[in-house]
Amino acid sequence: MSHTSSPPVSQPDAMSVDGVADQYVDHLVRLDPYEATFAGVAGHDHLSTDLSPDGYAERLALVKRTLAGLERAVANEDRESVARDAMRERLECEIACEEAGLNRVIRNLASPMHAVREAFDLMSTQTADDWQAIASRLADVPTNLDRYRATIEADLAAGLTPARRQVGAVIEQANQVNKDGFFTGLVETAPAPQRGELDRLAVAAGEAFSRFADYLGDHVHQRARADDHVGRDVYRIASRNFLGAEIDLDETYAWGLAELYRIEAEQAELARRIVPGGSVDDAVAALDADPARNIAGTERFRAWMQELSDRTIAEMNGTHFDIPDPIRTLECRIAPTRDGVMYYTGPSEDFSRPGRMWWSVPEGISTFSTWRETTTVFHEGVPGHHLQVAQVAYHKEALNRWQRLFCWISGHGEGWALYAERLMGELGYLDDPADRLGMLDAQAFRAARVVIDIGVHLGLDIPDEVVRRDGLAPGPWTAESAYEFLDLHTRQAPEVIQFEITRYLGWPGQAPSYKVGERIWMAAREEARRRKGAAFDLKEFHRQALNLGSIGLDPLQDALARL
Fold it and tell me: How many angstroms separate the CA atoms of 192 and 430, rounded?
């Protein structure tokens, strides 16, 4: 196993906050090479993250030592005080999640198994050394999946039982990795001198995923719990981790439903402009039947995304944002998987690998509606994730290495991306009723899952208003009623809805972080506007907010109040 242990961390009493953060990164990239690859830190692609119980314990010990050192550290500037608040909040959440087993859980998205495969997506294939790094990491795949098996067994023995629905989904996904020939396809372009070894390692890696699926089916599935919910106590930990903020879960549950109904009322008004006197379904049918608003073929759709992204960056730069040169490059790509999600990956530390927008096209999908996806390009690109993440990576003089490369809070990042969609509407980029309807359709989707996610995991009863309006049977939320609710309130393909429901059930607190994060971003902007009055400048607000880096939403509001 290509794995290097970290030496003990020593913290001099006079160490600065930035010094503690940088030292933490130095040790973290050795203990978690997968994260090093995702963050674009060079020199670790040939190594693999140890997924055994000992590996998790070693990383947790590093977090605890760093947290203790952070409390002794000196903040030499105001920005270091912000960095300390941000890092303390993250490390405390990391400890809570690790002790609750949330970082190791079997689920249909973002599980340790997914990291084993996805670590290859961002690896360079340009040189013989690059291919040697791939070979080294490929050789680790069977051993590392076995180590993850040991972690699963340890969690089961400790009473940390996965949900049966999630185990079933991961079995299917693990088998699909080998069936699709992901690893053998990965090495097809390798140089001839290395091809033989790489082919052998690729076959072995694919077979290891199939064996892992067999293990889950034979030894875990029947021991998994039948219910999906995690309960209020675990959900509170998960929610805080994804938001970096404490929220009133019951108030947020009620707000999510009210927000959904508000969005749907605006959709109905727009629909009548698109099809006079028509419903939202009538408008959607008319737009989907319009050849000018549909693209056939994944490559043509990718090219459309690239053109819109390039044009948006050019128009935003110098007007609403100041975008440095390295950030003006964003690659749009079709992902090697078929999960049905659009996602973003940030640039490498030296920007040799640019930021990328990925579209994981579901099986059987070959036609794409531009009116639905215009706002998605803004969400994943500029002014959404790419502007936010790449700008943070660029500001080396203002942010320490941990802030730039390893601090990511879903409520901050996804909340900003939803805020960015709404901002583009305010700036006139969604004046076309069809494009605005697409934005609202995505917003309704995010609002609906606030209700589902909190409702299912907390075991809440379906609201009387939902029973009355939608005809759902009264009683606690279930996976089946959540599917029915999402189907009624969004316009997604059945396979996408099923994937999403499974995702919410296995990843508590993550889905609501988008809409709740947007809510907090909007509140922070309005508070700044109220406080500064006529002196408020929107471009300056965005600059100051983004220059803080990714930060928990509670520390964000505190920091913005001091600006």
Answer: 50
- The tally of CA atoms less than 13 A away on the side-chain side of residue 28 is 23
Q: Are strands 330-334 and 355-359 parallel, antiparallel or unpaired?
A: parallel
Dist. CA 447–CA 426, nearest whole Å: 20
Evaluate whether 123 touches 48 at the Cβ level (below 8 Å).
no
Are 178 and 202 in contact by the 8 Å Cβ rule? The answer is: no
How far apart CA 450 and CA 442 sit, in angstroms, is 13
Strand bridging mode 342-345 / 355-359: antiparallel
| Cβ within 8 Å of residue 350, ≥6 positions away | 40, 42
Tokens standing for residue 295: 């693209």
Report DSSP state, residue 462.
P
The mean per-residue pLDDT over the stretch 42-59 comes to: 97
Contact call for residues 262 and 443 (beta carbons, < 8 A): no
CA 479 – CA 490 distance, rounded (Å): 16
Q: 115 Cβ partners below 8 Å, 6+ apart?
A: 34, 49
Identify the helix (H) or strand (E) that includes residue 368.
strand 367-369
Please state the three-class secondary structure of 312-364 as a single string: HHHHHECCCECCCHHHHCEEEEECCCCCCCEEEECCCCCCCCCEEEEECCCCC
Say whether the peptide bond before residue 112 is cis (omega within 30 degrees of 0). no
What tokens does 94 get? 């990391």
User: In the chain, count of helices (H) and strands (E)?
Assistant: 24, 5
Coil/strand/helix, residue 407: coil
CB atoms closer than 10 angstroms to residue 163: 22
DSSP characters over 126-190 = SSHHHHHHHHHHHHHHHHHHHHHHHHHHHHHHTT-PPBHHHHHHHHHHHHHHHHTTHHHHHTTTS
Structure-token match 């340890």, residue found: 154
The percentage of the chain sitting over the pLDDT mark of 70, rounded to a whole number, equals: 97
Both structure tokens of 485: 């609710």
Q: Which pTM value belongs to this model?
A: 0.91
- Comparing CA positions, the residue from 142, 118, 133, 122 lying closest to residue 45 is 133
CA atoms within 13 A on the CB side of 83: 26
Kind and range of the H or E run holding 369: strand 367-369
What is the spatial distance between Cα 450 and Cα 125, in angstroms, rounded to a whole number? Answer: 40
Q: What are the tens digits of pLDDT across the range 434-486?
A: 999 999 999 999 999 999 999 999 999 999 999 999 999 999 999 999 999 99
**Residue 43: φ, ψ to 5°:** 100, 5
Inter-residue contact 523 to 382 (CB < 8 Å): no
